Amino acid sequence: MDDNAPTEAEYFGPTYLNPIDTSYSQKLFQLEKLRGGVILEVFNAHQAKIAQLAGVVAVAVFDRANTPRIDPAFVREIKTSVSIPVVARFRVGNDVEAQIIGISGADIMDENEMLGVIDDQNFIFKHQYNTYAEASPPFICGCRTLGEVFSRIVEGAAMIRIQGDSGGGRLAETVKNVRSIMADLRILLSLGDEEVSAFATKIGAPMDLLHLARKWRLRFPVMLWAAGGIVTPADAAMMMQLGCDGVFVGSEIFSSQNPIKRLKVTTFLMDNQVAPTPSANSYPNTPYYEKVKRTEKLRSGVILEVRNTLQAKMAQEAGVAALILSEPTNRTASRMMDPALIKDIKRAVSIPIVARARVGHFVEAQILDELGVDFIEESELLDVADEQNFINKLKFNASTSSPPFICGAQTLGEAFRRIAEGAAMIRIQGDLIESGSISKTVKHVKNLKADLRILYSLLDEEVSAFTKKIGAHIDLVWQAKSWKRLPVMLFASGGIATPLDAGLFMQMECDGVYVGSEIFKSSDPVARIKAIVEVVKSNGDIRVLNQHTVLASVTNKTDEAEPSESAA
């Protein structure tokens, strides 16, 4: 239990907790032993034993037949196989199932929408169990908003599960709801006493609960756990740094090659999470501009996507400026590359390495920082971890040893917003939904350059309206107008497969290009890469381009299809 956790005596004070009895308060205090832990979904006794061996604090039982009801005999079977607490689920509003689960030996009951809803108007009034059955287990309930959280607490929930989609496991949805609840709580803490009543009415919560949350400062009367899409140790650490008290992990983790190792790493990270608390003056400009200068070594260069050490060595031989790493196989979910493979490629070459992190996944970025990659690309090509927020790259820029960040953009407004967040280089990308058509990339580059020319031509009194129109930061817009260029480099990405493609973007005044790994399917990939490198170094000089027109047309059958935008 952490130092800021309320004492047992504090649970007995608030009037809402104690109108009839004190057993509910005892249940709240009972669940404190789970704080900072992992609750793992299991389908059988063998998985439960693995979970206990890996150090999880509890297991959530899911019926082996994948039915909406839990067999009490199955709950007892899991109970006899492990010594850690067992969580059993039942359908929303089903009092009879709750009673059966209560006598089955389960330590905690989860009123769970994933099993289905019996009463779509009412959740179980859990205080009746807390009152007449002192030995009954505590209840967990799922929520997506702050108003729902307080409503479930009023009904008697002793722990809240902040969830994403009821039927799915999208990390982005869970992150969105966690951030929304934490943001509303910060708003609550910032209110004056006279404003609390209106806020309570707005979210549909009782006044005494809101005052209790304000008293404990950024803490709820119950613990808040995250659930949905949490698969990797980095996912779990991200939720803890967002302010959650623990995480639920799905049984999909048993499909990994070494589930015990992954679970142990996850539980270790959970035990060692300290949320960062930077001061307002933590991000001076100097380290950021040092990172911008570090990207200058890539100017007039090619960043080539590679999937293994052999391709990395071929790319280095061909003279590319840097490598961007991509998974060797297509996974169902696209995440940060395996750290072991990143280390292998780093050992194989001496040129800079760019590694991708999911949008908004600051823990993946922290891991890549620790791995010592040269650049981190926050990439939309991977699954999005946070649909509302990009990583605050200024936190990383505060450290001179952290790598610079690269971000994608399709418009001038997006480019300015990513720079404001701390991006040291911008990748102008094509359409992420389609197959990487070069026409989309050309369109976005031309539109961005056209908007820049408009900015340069504006009168000083017109800059403010232009800034508002594109949704940018006024100081960055003024800087670009003064310098007659963006403060960072622009690389083109998407559909670039030949020397002529690269020359096209260099003549459009890009600072470099990305090339996808499809180039390795050509009949002579090293020769083609060398030709693209020479064209880019010459900034698209027509004489150099003329020397390599043959390579623009020499293809094998695998080149005939337009390349996908895998390096966007």
TrEMBL record:
Signal peptide as annotated in the record: none
UniProt entry tagged with the keyword Metal-binding: no
Molecular function GO terms recorded: amine-lyase activity
GO biological process: amino acid metabolic process; pyridoxal phosphate biosynthetic process; pyridoxine biosynthetic process
Cited InterPro entries: Aldolase_TIM, PdxS/SNZ, PdxS/SNZ_N, RibuloseP-bd_barrel
Keyword terms of this UniProt record: Pyridoxal phosphate
PdxS/SNZ N-terminal domain segment(s): 32-227, 294-492
Highest rank taxon of the organism: Eukaryota
UniProt-listed Gene3D superfamilies: Aldolase class I
Family: Belongs to the PdxS/SNZ family.
Protein name: Pyridoxal 5'-phosphate synthase-like subunit PDX1.2
Organism: Senna tora
